[in-house]
DNA sequence: ATTATTTATCGTAATATTGCAATATTATAA
DNA sequence: TTATAATATTGCAATATTACGATAAATAAT
């Protein structure tokens, strides 16, 4: 096959998975870290920052955008990309919830 | 191609990406949530919990284990699987760091 | 020893991802 | 209008992922 059986899982599970999947590539982690490091949102130099060809970077940006991780708006010739706090806070809450609950578990057999 | 150019990115970026990728499937999100919900680590019923065939579940468990998200040990006929707090705390720290830094940014043009 | 139970592996088909060259699109500048 | 610059899309090849039937391996129970 090759297609996930998304219909068998909850919307929340599919949403978390889609966002995690989008972050599941080192180039896209690098993009996220770069967007976090710059103070302004005018990010027309993302292509120069990554060791990948321009179409490849454009494709990675598209995937991050589709997953809601970043937002983009036209800013003249360049495109302005920024992180989407809403999406990232969902992931933050997910992992914070997990780590808190793991600590509360006394059984740890593995 | 189809192979990520991991050598161009930092170990940290590759580690985050590998773990995020492992969580980037709704069945694996469901597995994580199930492991979090049960009190004991003896988890021989994961197959029955998911709407997927046994070999598929086994494959998903293997990927989570390879990424370090879960740990497993033999427990008689069954296999004992648990979440790995170390790996999950790395992801927790990553996303907590991002959300904190986003809040500190005053520019938000998108 | 034989059977039942549980999990892993193999093989394979369908689909998705990754990467880039070539090209298209869009907006600014001359 | 005609360049120039920045980003997007298309097309394609190489590889990876997803899913499952069939089968293997390992342990427990009879």
Task: Give a summary of the structure in a few sentences.
By secondary structure, chain A is mostly helical. The first copy, chain A, is 55% helix and 11% strand. Chain A has one domain: Orthogonal Bundle (Arc Repressor Mutant, subunit A).
Helix content of chain A: 55-70%
* Proper CATH architecture of chain A: Orthogonal Bundle
Beta-strand percentage range of chain A: 5-15%
Name the shape of chain A in a single word: globular
Query: Span from first to last CA of chain A?
Result: 33 Å
Largest interface: A-B, 57 and 57 residues
Number of helical elements of chain A: 5
Name the assembly state: homodimer
Low-confidence stretches of chain A: none
Structural Rg of chain A: 17 Å
The chain-level structural class of chain A is mainly alpha
Number of domains of chain A: 1
The side-by-side strand order for the widest beta sheet of chain A comes to 1-2
Q: Outline the biggest β-sheet of chain A.
A: 2 strands, antiparallel
CATH class of chain A: Mainly Alpha
Q: What is the CATH third-level topology name of chain A? A: Arc Repressor Mutant, subunit A
Residue-averaged pLDDT of chain A: 88
């Amino acid at each position: 096959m090759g297609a996930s059986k998304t219909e068998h899982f909850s919307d929340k599970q599919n949403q978390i998975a889609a966002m995690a999947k989008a972050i599941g590539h080192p180039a896209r982690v690098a993009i996220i870290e770069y967007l976090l490091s710059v103070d302004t949102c005018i990010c027309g130099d993302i292509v120069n920052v990554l060791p990948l060809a321009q179409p490849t970077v454009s494709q990675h940006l598209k995937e991050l955008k589709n997953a809601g991780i970043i937002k983009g708006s036209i800013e003249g010739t360049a495109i302005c990309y920024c992180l989407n706090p809403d999406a990232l806070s969902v992931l933050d809450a997910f992992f914070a919830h997990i780590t808190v609950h793991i600590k509360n578990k006394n059984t740890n057999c593995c």
